[in-house]
Amino acid sequence: xxxxxxxxxxxxxxxxxxxxxxxxxxxxxxxxxxxxxxxxxxxxxxxxxxxxxxxxxxxxxxxxxxxxxxxxxxxxxxxxxxxxxxxxxxxxxxxxxxxxxxxxxxxxxxxxxxxxxxxxxxxxxxxxxxxxxxxxxxxxxxxxxxxxxxxxxxxxxxxxxxxxxxxxxxxxxxxxxxxxxxxxxxxxxxxxxxxxxxxxxxxxxxxxxxxxxxxxxxxxxxxxxxxxxxxxxxxxxxxxxxxxxxxxxxxxxxxxxxxxxxxxxxxxxxxxxxxxxxxxxxxxxxxxxxxxxxxxxxxxxxxxxxxxxxxxxxxxxxxxxxxxxxxxxxxxxxxxxxxxx
Length: 341
Ligand code: PHE
Known about the structure:
Layout: H1 2-17, H2 22-33, H3 39-46, H4 54-91, H5 110-123, E1 128-129, E2 135-137, H6 138-141, E3 166-168, H7 174-182, E4 187-196, E5 207-217, H8 222-237, E6 243-250, E7 253-262, E8 279-288, H9 290-295, E9 304-311, H10 312-320, H11 333-336
Helix pairs in contact: 1-4, 2-4, 3-4, 5-8, 5-10
Bound molecules: phenylalanine.
Phenylalanine is lined by residues 171, 173, 212, 250, 253, 284-286, 307-309.
């Protein structure tokens, strides 16, 4: 009997010696100790085949073996678990001296930088920002701006119509009317926003942004316009830049001008950027047409005003030397990251 017990003990020890982890040990423990299927409980069950004299001694031996086995497995389990924990801790060790992973931070789009710079410049001269709707009534975008339905100047801007009376605004000038209708002079507003025209090439996009300016007060002249544009041009393109006004035509301004800045690349001598002329056209402007003031209930004999409108993408392209307007809409991070401030 004792040999039988000893044999089982040795088998357990031998098997346990090659067990490498606590899961496998658990299986081994089951093989010997599981109440239903284990070898040691089976011995207990076998006791009923023994004679009454043999039973007590056998029972004692089996119990002793069971006690030993329980102790043995508990001990081995603790050892294996400790080793496993140590291994896990070693694997999870953090090297606090390792350099951190850099996070790529986003940045403002160059066109947003330009818009912000413009707002900053004009806010410094007392302008406040007004934002009009992108879907506009025909009236605000054209008719009230002295461009009635049959006016040939409508051809200057290829328009996306939503319905006969609704359109995607072609110019932020629409905002001039919205402001003048509701505000008594003095008026000094800046109106940034998206505009839409059916136009598409290297320097034109069907959607682009404009920055409108409008000043209405007593005694406003074209000199005030040029004075403010000088500040704008010098802050955006450089201290030495000059402006010049050329006669032009817009239905809502009279007189109308095209504003050029002296070429900041060559200092006015003539180069590729200014196409040899020394000047670069940057915006349209003029004195607010009497009819437009009247349309908004402002007396043109008392008040005068000027307005200007510039393409923000155009300013961005000039300022950063961007050759194609599409680069501003493609969201290519390799391009955009060059302009992060
Ligand atoms: N709205 C004109 C355009 O888009 C620009 C402009 C604005 C001209 C204000 C004069 C006054 O071309």
